[in-house]
Amino acid sequence: MKTAASDLEEGHGGAGLDGIAVDDVTVSYRNGTTALRDVSFTIPTGTITALVGVNGSGKSTLFKAIMGFLRAGKGSISILGRSVRDALKETLVAYVPQAEEVDWNFPVLVEDVVMMGRYGHMNMLRIPRKRDHEAVAGALARVNMTEFAKRQIGELSGGQKKRVFLARALAQDAQVILLDEPFTGVDVKTEEAIIRLLKGLRDEGRVMLVSTHNLGSVPEFCDRTVLLKQTVLDAGPTPEVFTEENLRRTFGGVLRHFVLPGERGADGHPGESVTVISDDERPFVVYGDEGEELSAKPVKARTSKKETPKKPMPKPRRRTPRT
Ligand SMILES: Nc1ncnc2c1ncn2[C@@H]1O[C@H](COP(=O)(O)OP(=O)(O)OP(=O)(O)O)[C@@H](O)[C@H]1O
Description:
By secondary structure, the protein is of the alpha/beta class. The protein folds into three domains: 1-92 and 175-238, Rossmann fold; 105-173, no CATH class; 243-323, no CATH class. The chain has eleven helices and 13 strands. The protein has helices spanning 4-11, 59-66, 84-89, 110-116, 130-142, 158-172, 188-203, 218-221, 238-241, 244-251, 289-294, and strands spanning 18-28, 34-44, 47-52, 74-79, 82-83, 93-96, 176-180, 207-211, 224-229, 231-237, 256-260, 274-278, 284-287. The strands form three sheets. The chain has a six-stranded mixed sheet, with helices on both faces. The protein has a four-stranded antiparallel sheet with strand order 2-1-4-5. A hairpin with a 5-residue loop joins strand 12 and strand 13 (284-287). It is globular. The relative contact order is 0.13. Bound molecules: adenosine-5'-triphosphate. Residues 29, 31, 33, 35, 53, 55-61 line the site of adenosine-5'-triphosphate (ATP). Residues 287-323 are annotated as: Disordered. GO terms for molecular function: ATP binding; ATP hydrolysis activity.
């Protein structure tokens, strides 16, 4: 029988089996809202993929469909070559939720939250065995939260809570990890720690799909990008997909894009122009000539939907601090 591990070996580095394959999926809610229409994309194993779109573009709905909470009215989803149902049975998929989705008043210890990741590996009585305790300890250590094991989850900071839910996914030994806005409410240091961890998981051949509004971090750590607006506007390697034209199509008037002139520059960058592209969180910032390639017109807030030639985004050299 094929195991997840053997699949991952086959697929490591993008070749071989797809990590997630979404084929022509349409999902509608009972009230008649069609949140996803004809959505298709594939993600190879051993990759991190950004899921980018405005509020209401269908990101959470897509996560729910991949988790099997919502059934596609049309199309199919496969995970590591299995149906969603089989993938869930084999505990291959984990979900790291947005902070708002969790009731933080629920009295539960950090180690208990992480142990929930082991439920799929236990029998019906859910009595943890040695290997379950070891998995929990290992997962907490990996996210640097060992000293918080006996704390109530509600007492932690936003970034610490995020790390606990990541630890739950690790304790589960999930091969496919869906992360809903993992950087919201976390400081830059924690964000960097999470990114380092995700890169390590990628190198183990796992699959990560990350919804984010932090456009600045996408080219830094996401190999691939899926742009969503009820349907897929574009999907593929980030250097090809994360373009100015595509971001405008994705965000429309929500996107703010402006260039500060070279004479003024920014702190630490005198004489360099600064290009800023942002929806609502951390902007994508480019200093100097690379930024000028994006726009020849300085000091202009641009929110028009006018199409411009497709140009790859240059890699940012520095990002602005979080406000
Ligand atoms: N339970 C529901 N019942 C009916 N419609 C819903 C439900 N949940 C979401 N929707 C609708 O489906 C569409 C997609 O919503 P979804 O939550 O997937 O977007 P999103 O991209 O995750 O947004 P955000 O960035 O704000 O989290 C929206 O029009 C939303 O109003």
